[in-house]
UniProtKB/TrEMBL annotation:
The keyword Magnesium applies. Its EC number is 4.1.1.31. The gene is ppc. Keywords: Carbon dioxide fixation, Lyase, Magnesium, Pyruvate. This is Phosphoenolpyruvate carboxylase. Forms oxaloacetate, a four-carbon dicarboxylic acid source for the tricarboxylic acid cycle.
Length: 878
């Protein structure tokens, strides 16, 4: 394995060396030597050298105020540069999140076509794939956009330096540029001065498309076409779009008071503006390229036998796109311009039909080679992004909708909707949904919160259906939660049937999901509304926070199985929407393994998945990286559809059920029942201090006065990853595995891990989390920050962690964690000597800021930098 990672280590070493030279130039040799000494001591400390650990702590605690910021900055930036080297290694050596592999689509096509699945079935599956990746806001994306752009440039140079044809002079120039970039990075403030707005977050998402996905989509489809053609002799359709993109940025108002109808309107305009601007750039290039004369009859007739028929059509599109950009600029500036819709691109067909006419003319005239260049790329982009770029989902909490109906029923003298039982609610909602008269009086003046929900529904009614995705209902639990939204959409004049999607999040709601949907499917009116297609969202974050990862995972699996079965009986096509976060504790982990571990028949060519936080950058931030991620998703969904995993054996189910029950008891015995837990959590982690970091636009809590239960899953997990205990990602799971082992079920567990993808993935994720957990560091935080009377709880948690590690090692029959995933192990090993010192300093700074009434600016900034650095080092923080 050493050779496989030699180039990774070499690049990490090169970038680290240049960073060191930059620090020396800006500070002095003595400071750089101190940093290097701390790094070496951290390395030795990792190998069990207690004297090295003591020496390192002595140096860290003696750091004067004026050295705190450069120290944190140095280690923070090294970790960011290590991430860059790893991203480049991923691209250049074709690695996914766990191991270096050949192209997943190529491998899969070979396996499918050598199995008993015929070619037509495979092509049919590929042509009908519907993978929707939903980009969600970035409350864990630490890095500023200006730094991200510099990191991308560093990757470009690493790629250039691998070119064996470079002359010595060219190499020198590339190294000079590398030094310039790292100097710019060093002199840029890593911490934002202000918290981003929802519009900022939406612009961030659009920039990912502009700098990466816009190129990656046609690149990926060209690669896919070559692979299919090579094996089947057939071409993919011009409008194939196996992967599409949606967004929650600017549409997700659950617990975010800053996402208003006005903000959503602006984001919808920005999405469309970006699309028009990017298509315009493409068309400008195409005007120059398509200077050919020969055309088919249709095009010649359309252009009155023009000498340059292709250019005539393209020049007309160019003008319309310019008009579209100008019109949307005015809207974004707050004006309400009048416009002739015939003069702009307002429907997808306005762009698609002329381009298809040109494509057909070129192929009819024997110029397929030209047709399949940039023109085909634009058609493929149009199939993926449309003219709205990202379909915007709307998300709101179920309670907010019932509050609207309740305020309305009280105003109309009909009683209080919120006090009715479920059957009364359903009867009322269905009566109004099927009735002809309006329910909302024109002179009604609702409260501010209610008015905002109604304004959002009115806005939805004014949008083309292609601009919007799903209306997601957080904390849904009953049929009335869905019917209430449908009634609000009807009452505000929504002309198209929007997908209304219940999100089942807590353990109880997951367990009752199939019951809720069965009731809905039994309603004739509702069945008619769905037109035979239902989307259901499965929550990973809140279910894990509620019940722990093991019980949540089993509840998610079981809920999906039941939903698949009731949908089959109701003859409804089901799309499951997986609400994953970046971390294991929020359903994160390698996408390929996650999809293949779903229940049989639950994918069936269709899936929606959230992509959140810094994981968007790690998966899609660079075109080549994005092509790999698109290939992983496509191959996984095809495999889950055509070669589904086996259904679990009855004895596996019984064992898993027992594990789930024991794990939820073990988890809740700490999180809910331990009286000292909240006090320990707030003392031992930087949970309070995280609120000061200007990360996402959304508040950290759903309710300001709430406790752990109201804390969002992201800060909950982020805080525990900072002190390196990683508690939400393992608590309860290891204890349940150990109990099963004590009952003599280890052989059964090993069979499950070997033959059941669901269980194998769970254990693999658990192993990764255990490898990242550092009980000694967590203990150091405790020593510095936690009152002595609470130390008993820390000791108990570390004992549970050790129990879990022992159980997983016994189960996987390994001597060390991640023995079978060397790529991940290498990644963790590379970072540890840089993360550890940041953790030690963070604990010291937390202790200092909590004692002082007002911390100095240096201390505050250094603390923020340590948080950013640990997040960069841990990678999947939120």
């Amino acid at each position: 394995m050493a050779d496989m990672y030699a180039s990774l280590r070499s690049n990490v070493g090169t970038l680290g060396q240049i960073l060191g030279e930059t620090i020396r130039t800006n500070l002095d040799d003595a400071f750089l030597e101190k940093i290097e000494q701390i790094r070496q001591l951290a390395k030795s400390s990792r190998q069990g050298d207690e004297a090295a650990r003591e020496e390192m702590l002595k140096l860290l605690t003696a750091l004067p105020d004026n050295e705190l910021v450069p120290f944190a900055k140095a280690f923070n930036q090294f970790l960011n540069l290590a991430n860059i080297a790893e991203q480049f290694h991923t691209i250049s050596r074709n690695c996914d999140e766990l191991v270096c592999v050949p192209d997943p689509v190529e491998q899969l096509l070979g396996r499918i076509l050598s199995s008993n699945i015929d070619q037509e079935k495979m092509l049919d599956c590929l042509n009908n794939l519907d993978i929707d990746l939903v980009l969600t806001a970035h409350p864990t994306e630490i890095s500023r956009r200006t730094l991200i752009q510099k990191y991308s440039s560093v990757i470009d140079i690493l790629a250039a330096l691998e070119n064996p044809q470079l002359t010595e002079r060219e190499k020198k120039q590339q190294h000079l540029r590398l030094r310039q970039l790292i100097a710019q990075i060093w002199h840029t403030n890593e911490i934002r001065n202000e918290r981003p707005t929802p519009v900022d977050e939406a612009r961030w998402g659009l920039s990912t498309i502009e700098v990466s996905l816009w190129q990656a989509i046609p690149d990926f489809l060209r690669q896919l076409n070559e692979q299919v053609e090579e094996r089947t002799g057939k071409q993919l359709p011009t409008d194939i779009a196996p992967v599409r993109f949606s967004s929650w940025m600017g549409g997700d108002r659950d617990g975010n008071p800053f996402v208003t109808a006005k903000v959503t309107q602006e984001v919808l305009d920005r999405n469309r503006h970006t699309a028009a601007r990017l298509y315009l750039k493409d068309i400008v290039v195409l005007v120059n390229e398509l200077s050919v004369e020969e055309a088919n009859e249709e095009l010649l007739e359309y252009t009155n036998n023009s000498l340059e028929p292709y250019r005539d059509v393209l020049k007309d599109l160019r003008l319309k796109l310019r008009n579209t950009v100008d019109y949307l600029n005015e809207r974004l500036e707050g004006h309400k311009p009048e416009v002739d819709l015939n003069s702009i691109i307002w429907h997808e067909s306005d762009l698609k039909e002329p381009l298809l006419m040109l494509y057909k003319s070129l192929t009819d005239s024997g110029m397929s080679l030209i047709a399949n260049g940039l023109l085909l790329d634009i058609l493929r982009r149009l199939a993926c992004f449309g003219i709205h770029m990202l379909k915007l989902d709307i998300r709101q909490d179920a309670e907010r909708h019932s509050d609207v109906i309740a305020e309305l029923t009280r105003y109309l003298g009909m009683g209080d909707f919120n006090h009715w039982d479920e059957s009364e609610k359903q009867a009322f909602l269905l009566r109004e949904l099927t009735g002809k008269r309006p329910l909302i009086p024109s002179n009604w003046q609702p409260s501010d919160d209610v008015a905002e929900v109604v304004s959002t529904c009115r806005l939805i009614a004014t949008q083309p259906s292609q601009a919007l995705g799903s209306y997601v209902i957080s904390m849904a639990s009953k049929p009335s939660d869905v019917l209430a939204v449908l009634l609000l959409l009807k009452e505000t004049g929504c002309p198209h049937p929007m997908r209304v999607v219940p999100l089942f999040e807590t353990l109880d709601d997951l367990n009752n999901a199939s019951g809720c949907m069965s009731e809905l499917f039994a309603i004739d009116w509702y069945r008619g509304y769905t037109k035979g297609h239902q989307e259901v969202m499965i929550g990973y974050s809140d279910s894990a926070k509620d019940a722990g990862v093991m019980a949540a995972a089993w509840a998610q699996y079981h809920a999906q199985e039941e939903l698949v079965e009731i949908s089959r009986k109701a003859e409804v096509k089901l799309t499951l929407f997986h609400g994953r976060g970046g971390t294991i504790g929020r359903g994160g982990g390698p996408a390929h393994e996650a999809i293949l571990s779903q229940p049989p028949s639950s994918v069936d060519g269709r899936i929606r998945v959230t992509e959140q936080g810094e994981m968007i950058r790690f998966k899609f931030g660079l075109p080549k990286l994005a092509v790999q991620s698109l290939a992983l998703y496509t191959s996984a969904v095809m495999e889950a559809t055509l070669l589904p995993p086996p259904a679990p054996k009855p004895e596996w189910r019984a064992c898993m059920q027992k594990l789930a029950e024991e794990s939820v008891d073990a988890y809740r015995s700490i999180v809910r029942d331990e009286p000292d837990f909240v006090a320990y959590f707030r003392a031992a982690t930087p949970e309070v201090e995280l609120g000061k970091l200007p990360l996402g636009s959304r508040p950290a809590k759903r309710r300001v006065d709430g406790g752990i239960e109201s804390l969002r899953a992201i800060p909950w997990i982020f805080a525990w990853s900072q002190n390196r205990l990683m508690l939400p990602a393992w608590l309860g799971a290891g204890e349940a595995l150990q109990a099963a082992s004590d009952r003599g079920e280890m052989e059964l567990l090993q069979e499950m891990e070997q033959d059941w993808p669901f269980f194998k993935t769970r254990i693999s994720m658990l192993e990764m989390v255990y490898a990242k957990a550092e009980p000694n560091l967590a203990k150091y935080y405790e020593t510095c920050l936690v009152p002595e009377n609470l130390h008993h709880l820390g000791a108990a948690l570390r004992t549970r962690l050790a129990t879990g590690i022992k159980a997983v090692l016994e189960l996987t029959q390994s001597n060390a964690l991640m023995e079978h995933t060397p790529w991940n192990r290498e990644s963790v090993t590379l970072r540890n000597p840089y993360i550890d010192p940041l953790n030690f300093v963070q604990a010291e700074l937390l202790a200092r800021t909590r004692k002082e009434e007002e911390a100095s600016t240096n201390v505050e900034l250094a603390l923020m930098l340590t948080i950013a650095g640990v997040a960069a080092g841990m990678r999947n923080t939120g």
